[in-house]
Structures are given as structure tokens and as C-alpha cells.
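Sample intake sheet
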Amino acid sequence: MSDSPAGRLQALFEGHRLTPTQRRIAHCMVRRAADVPFLSSVELAELAGVSQPSVTRFAVALGFDGYPALRRHLREVAPEEKKAEERAEYNEYQQAVLAEIENLRHLAGLLADPAPVERAGRLLAASRPLPVLGLRAASSQARGFAYFAAKVHPDVRLLDEGGSMLTDRVDAAVRAGATALMCFALPRHPKEVVEALEYARAAGLTVVTVAESAFAPVAAHSDLLIPAAVGTGLAFDTACAPMLLGRVLLEAMADELPDAQARLEEFDTKAAARGLFVE
């Protein structure tokens, strides 16, 4: 686990059975990890879209006497990494880049235990076909993963459009023999994604999810969720860590496919013959 503010918050929440409202608060806290130790319960409630008493009950559920005790704990164990005057030396664009670097450090800390990624690789490699889901903000992550996965996996099916056809396509994948579904889920989370994951699991698929937090709304509908934080310092979230985690999962999947290297070599040979790329 990384020694970042987000990493320390994740560690604090682990092992607690949280209600959906409490998971929403935890999710908000992870996204605003650097600011949380200095927020009042009212401010946190507004950010999470819950009531102030819900924040108090959340703190008690974590074992604290109330929110003030939780905040004191956070100030002790998760202090700001830079003083305000130090952060002021950087403009908003630099701060966004530095925040993404911290997200990547957090991801590196999580990957110190390779077991979840290795398990995901086995699940994805064994699924024939392999449906890959990502809607709206996550569609580019899903498309990139599916593009590269198709070079080593014999049957990859991209699900990047919602609507009434989505469940039909999940059904088609199940009928064809799919056993797992790869999902990329990023804020803001479309209702369709949650519904699709719920449907996929009911249909017998094992859901592997990349989301920005272990407390994201899709967590309850995932069999294996691996978190990769997004940056929130700009008008639109940045997703370098989820993209990199997708590539790591591709590597783990390829390691489980005995003919992956042969497929890559075959593609390179055909690409050269067709003159696909400029040298």
C-alpha cells in the first residue's frame, strides 16, 4: 500500500462492512484525500451528497467517537504532503501533473502484491470470448484495452455503447462461452454500467473491474476490483493510472496465453508485408 493520503485512507477503510451511503462517503474521501483532514462534517457531507448525521455515523462505524475524532486521526496519519505555500509555487497545470504522478505511485504500491493482477490475468485469458465494457468516460480505456487484447486473445468483444442492446450483447457473449467480463468504470459512473455488471454476474460471468476506488459504485457488482485513482484537479478527470493498470492487466493476461508471443510475431510479419506502419 502506498504511503500517499489516498493509500492511507484505503487502509483505514479496509476490513469494515460499510453501508452504500458509507461507501459513498469513503469514495468521496479517497477522491479528495489531501483535503479531507481539513473538512468539516458538513463540508464532507455536501461533497459526498449525504446528510451530516450520515458522516457522523460513518466515523462511528470506523471505530471513532465521532467525526472530530476521525478528522484528528487523519491529521495525524495523513498530513498534507506539501504546505500550502509550497503548493503555491506550482500553477494549476503543474499541480494536476504532480497529482497524477502521486496516483501512479499509489498504483505502484498496490502492485507490490501481484496476486490480484495475476488472478485477473488468468480469468481474462480463460474467457472465450472476452467482453470488455466501458461507457462514456471509460470508453477510451475499454477501447484501448480491447485493441491490444485482440492481438493476443482469440476473441475480444468491445462493449462501449449503452442502450437496450447492451444486455443483448452480454447474452451473446455468454452463449458463445464467455466466463469473465473486463470492465473499466470511471467517474461519473453511468447507471447503465452498474446495471450491466449486475446483469452480467447474474448471467454467470466473473466481473473484473478497474475503477478509481475500491469504494466506487461498481464495487458491489464486481468479483475482483483493482483500484487506480483518477486526477481531479482539472475540469475533466485525468486517468493515467487506470490506463497503465489496463496495460498491466494485458501483460498478466498475455502471460497466461501460451500462444500470445506467436500471435504477436504473426501480426508483426503481416503488418510488415502490408506496409501498415511508417518506419
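Comment: Residues 92-110 form the longest helix (19 residues). The chain has a mean pLDDT of 90.
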